[in-house]
């Protein structure tokens, strides 16, 4: 993002924050750690909500600390996952990423794994990344009959980070669309804790539901009913991410029989009303149930805008 566009966006975000509390003027509040920074601070960085390969360039702002703590890592697992799923092979489409190590007669060569046109798996040694002595020795000696190739598909070794990657993307999408009205809810503390600690199981319930088929072209947000309760959700690639509502931390069950199949997608339903960005304070109510209700409303400098979504049968 060019610098002038970045400062214009940050000014807009900061003006929204001021609507919740006048004392917060000129500040940017990081959506994940909730720390405040002056809007011209170098500590504010742009981060991709959804990796490039899917859904285009959807970005948000984060503080540098959060970005380096989880931003790059989770985005990487998520984009790795998307790439692997799309290619339908356990290998990366880009062979440069699928690193492997070959071991034979006590020598070690580093390289990459490739799939040849006839479907054969090929190891391609990389001279620059291998020990030069081993590399030379391997090619000059008679070939060993026993060769071991070791490789690690990083994304499978990081399942927890991948799960949290989807959660982070869902949280980011909601922030992108509903701004601080969404973020300034204490009901989301558990989500923020989970995002900031991807290795630990903090949200110990099933917030990810795999979709049977890819039913959506673009990542989107919406509402979904589980039993009698409504929850904010996001559809990202082949996963449905369920977020807490102010009323309940999570659905009592996510078993398919208890799930309403109906999703209110905000893409058509209310995106036009907000022009893809809701400027708060805003309270969102679906069929009489609060789905968004920011905690800071008592200090707000302007009255909250109530939005009702009454589209359920
Ligand atoms: Zn932060």
Automatic annotation (TrEMBL):
GO terms for molecular function: endonuclease activity. It holds the Pfam family HNH_5. Residues 34-74 form the HNH endonuclease domain. InterPro entries: HNH_5. This is HNH endonuclease. Keywords: Endonuclease, Hydrolase, Nuclease.
């Amino acid at each position: 993002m060019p610098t002038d566009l970045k400062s214009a966006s940050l000014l807009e975000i900061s003006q929204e924050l001021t609507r919740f509390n006048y004392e917060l003027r000129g500040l940017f509040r990081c959506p994940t750690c909730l720390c405040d920074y002056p809007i011209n601070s170098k500590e504010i960085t742009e981060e991709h909500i959804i990796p490039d390969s899917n859904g285009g360039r959807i970005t948000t702002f984060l503080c540098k600390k959060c970005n380096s703590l989880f931003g790059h890592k989770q985005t990487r697992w998520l984009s790795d996952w998307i790439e692997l799923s799309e290619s339908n092979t356990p290998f990366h489409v880009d062979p440069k990423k699928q690193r492997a190590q070959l071991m034979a007669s006590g020598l070690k060569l580093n390289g990459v794994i490739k799939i040849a046109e006839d479907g054969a798996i090929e190891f391609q040694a990389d001279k620059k990344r291998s020990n030069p002595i081993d590399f030379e020795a391997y090619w000059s000696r008679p070939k060993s009959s026993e060769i071991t190739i070791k490789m690690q598909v990083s994304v499978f070794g990081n399942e927890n980070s991948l799960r949290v990657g989807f959660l982070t993307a869902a949280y980011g999408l909601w922030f992108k669309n509903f701004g601080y009205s969404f973020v300034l809810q204490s009901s989301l503390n558990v989500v923020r804790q989970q995002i900031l600690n991807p290795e630990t199981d903090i949200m110990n319930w099933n917030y990810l539901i795999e979709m049977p088929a890819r039913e959506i072209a673009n990542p989107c947000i919406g509402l979904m009913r589980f039993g009698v309760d409504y929850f904010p959700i996001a559809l990202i690639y082949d996963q449905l991410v369920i977020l807490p509502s102010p009323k309940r931390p999570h659905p009592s069950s996510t078993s398919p029989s208890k799930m309403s199949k109906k999703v209110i997608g905000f893409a058509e339903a209310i995106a036009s009303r907000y022009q893809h960005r809701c400027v708060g304070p805003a309270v969102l109510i679906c069929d009489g149930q609060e789905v968004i209700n920011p905690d800071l409303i008592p200090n707000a400098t302007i009255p909250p805008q109530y939005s009702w979504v009454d589209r359920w049968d």
